[in-house]
Amino acid sequence: MKKLAIFSGLAIVIVTVIYLLLPYEPEMTYRESDRVRYHLYTPESIKQAPRLSPDYTFSHSAANGQPDTAGVCFSGVSDTAALKQYLVLRGYSFARKAPAGELWTSERSQDVYFTVISRVSPGKQVCLYESDR
């Protein structure tokens, strides 16, 4: 039992030190291989999103007092059907078109909404963003 307490305390200290030493950026892009940022800044809903292509990056933004936004962007694809189906399975429905893409909301989770974006220029890219209200 004493070993478990020592190990747990050491793990907490290590995670705290890593978190404090990790430079915080109000806007960042990272890959899943960047384990620290991936685990600290990526919500479960984005982690569980279907992988549309092997070329994808994650992002996190909390700049200028804006609500937190986290997302994943897939390069080389333009079909958003799998992401839309994923949102439907999570209880979200299409709310409206917006200049940036499609907004998806849920009655069960009114503090969060999703945006699905499909870009074709300069290259094909599909993104899913989760934002706090």
Provide a compact summary of the structure.
The protein is α+β, with helices and mostly antiparallel strands.
Keywords:
alpha+beta; 7-stranded antiparallel beta sheet; 7 strands; 133 residues; 32% strand
Structural notes for this entry:
By secondary structure, the chain is of the alpha+beta class. It has one domain (25-132). It has four helices and seven strands. The protein has helices at 2-21, 35-41, 44-47, 81-89; strands spanning 27-30, 56-61, 69-75, 93-97, 102-105, 112-119, 125-132. A seven-stranded antiparallel sheet has the order 1-2-3-7-6-5-4. The longest helix is centred in the first third of the chain and has 20 residues, at 2-21. The radius of gyration is 17 Å and the shape is globular. The mean pLDDT is 87.
Blueprint of the fold:
Blueprint: H1 2-21, E1 27-30, H2 35-41, H3 44-47, E2 56-61, E3 69-75, H4 81-89, E4 93-97, E5 102-105, E6 112-119, E7 125-132
